[in-house]
Amino acid sequence: MNIGFIAAGSRKDLIENFCLAYKYILAKHELYATEMTGLRIEQATNLKVHKFLSGSVGGEKQFIDMIQRNYMDLVIYFYNPLMSSPNEPDIIEITRECDRYNIPIATNIATAEAMVLGMERGSLDWRLAVRKEN
After folding, report:
1. 132 in any annotated domain
2. Distances from the Cα of 121 to the Cαs of 25, 107, 115, in angstroms?
3. Predicted structure pTM score
4. For residue 95, what is the domain's CATH number?
């Protein structure tokens, strides 16, 4: 499965710790992330991450393009809902596109854990069939 990661600056430590905790599940899949998030995940876990540009210079647009091509199977996007962000329109756009293409998205650690564990059980295998159709 293709799993995408994005983390706001204040959530980079959280995404590192999340990926470290689920390293052995994530190692079985293709990982994608915006540049800094991808570097942090690679440094923390030694997993290979396909990196887009930084979010602020087009990485989130590259991410959205993969979603629109129905190539992403799961998205984990940790942001801080208590802080206003210059990237807030991209948060909304990524969520909207995931909903449009039926791509599961987690915006908090509780949902991300449930989805990764479900993926490990095979509960998201339907995404592989959807991706093949496109």
Report:
1. no
2. 10, 21, 10
3. 0.92
4. 3.40.50.1380
